[in-house]
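Format notes (please read before filing issues)

Several people have asked whether sequences and structure tokens are stored in separate files. They are not. Every record keeps both together, in the order shown below: the sequence lines, then the token lines. Line labels are part of the format and must not be stripped during preprocessing.
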Amino acid sequence: MTIEQLTSTQIHYGQELAEISSRFANESFLASAPISTIKQMMESIVDIRRKMDEIKEQLWKIS
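Then the structure lines:
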């Protein structure tokens, strides 16, 4: 992947994290969401962070 592609992918993941974070900030959502939904959201955060770390490593190798 090129630097531009990696950066674009990293921005996309950042947007996904922001969306999940905004849902966590919504108290009424948290109060009504099933535990399974919250668990899935937390797993998504971990997965996205892992992918972002991989991209960061690739960017370090390129630069």
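For reference, the curators noted about this record: Residues 35-62 form the longest helix (28 residues). Residues 3-62 form one domain.
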